[in-house]
Amino acid sequence: AKDQLRRERYYNRRVRQDTTFEVGDLVWVLKPPRGKVISKLAHQWVGPARIVLSAGVDNWEVVRDDTDEHSIVHCSF
User: Is the pLDDT of residue 73 over 90?
Assistant: First the structure.
């Protein structure tokens, strides 16, 4: 029983919390750089991006404020 409670606490610390997004929220988008000469120190997060509309379960259409780039992203945290 003790072990089960310990495992439950461990799991619950790392499980996704109830994060809610709404249209109009500003978010950061993970966009890993691609290419042969990209270093590990390159920027991976771009933003801010504004949520335009919901595109399904945990999927959102966002538009970047700096480049007006539209993309559909998945919320996976």
Answer: yes
Q: How many domains does the chain have?
A: 1
pTM of the model: 0.69
Do 19 and 76 form a contact (C-beta atoms < 8 A)?
A: no
Other beta carbons within 10 angstroms of residue 53's beta carbon come to 9
Instruction: Determine the Cα–Cα distance for residues 20 and 14; give it in Å rounded to an integer.
Output: 17
Q: Residues with Cβ < 8 Å from 55, sequence gap 6 or more? A: 61, 72
**Would you say residue 36 lies in a domain?**
yes
What backbone phi and psi angles, to 5 degrees, belong to 63?
-130, 130
Q: Tell me whether residue 10 is in a domain.
A: no
pLDDT number for residue 52: 96
pLDDT at 62: 97
